[in-house]
Amino acid sequence: MASETANSPESNADWMEVGRIVGVQGLKGEVRVYPDSDFPERFLEPGMRWLRSPGAVAPKPVELVSGRLLAGKNLYVVKFAEVGDRTQAEALRGAVMLVPAGDRLPLAPDEFHVRDLIGLEVWHQVTQTQVGTVIDLIAAGNDLLEVKLLAPQGKTTTVLIPFVRAIVPVVDLPSRRLEITPPDGLLP
Questions:
Q1: pLDDT, tens digit (0-9, with 9 covering 90-100), for 72-118
Q2: Which stretches of the chain are DSSP H helices?
Q3: Of 68, 110, 114, 188, which sits with the fewest C-beta atoms within 10 Å of its C-beta?
C-alpha cells in the first residue's frame, strides 16, 4: 500500500512530509534523504520542495536540481540549487523535506496516504466493537498500523496490526473507520 507521511500538528493542514535529511554525500553539497514517501519522483524529478529545519516552524523553499537512488540503502541522494558545498549540506542534517498537502499524487486502488489513515477508528469486524484508533503507520516488509487501544490491557496501550487485506479488509475513509479481522493472539 503506497503512502506518504503525516506531518506534525502545527503544519498538518499545509504540508506533507516526504523525507528526512539524514546525512551528506561527498563534497559538492549533496544530501542523503530517507524517504517517507512511496513515490520516487519526489526525490528524482527537479522542482520546488520545502525544508523545515529542526526547531523551525515555517519551511523554506529549495529547488531540487537532481536526485538518484542510493542502491541497497533505501536512501536518495539529492542536490539542491541553494547548497554548494559539504558545510552547507551538513547544516541541513535533520531537516524534513516537504511538499504542499495539495500536491498529492494519484493512488491506485487499495493505496492510501498515511495522513488519511491517522485518526481512523479501528473496529473488530465480527463483534462490531471499537478496538482503538490508528496513531501511526510503520513501514516494514508489510506496513504496520500502530493502534492506540481504546481499553488498554495492563501495560499494553498500543498494538501493531499488519496492514494487509486479510487482516484489514475494510478502510472507509469517508466514515473515518477501518475494520479488522485479527487472528488469534493479535489483540491482548
A1: 888 999 999 999 999 999 999 999 999 888 887 777 777 777 778 88
A2: 41-44, 86-90, 114-117
A3: 110
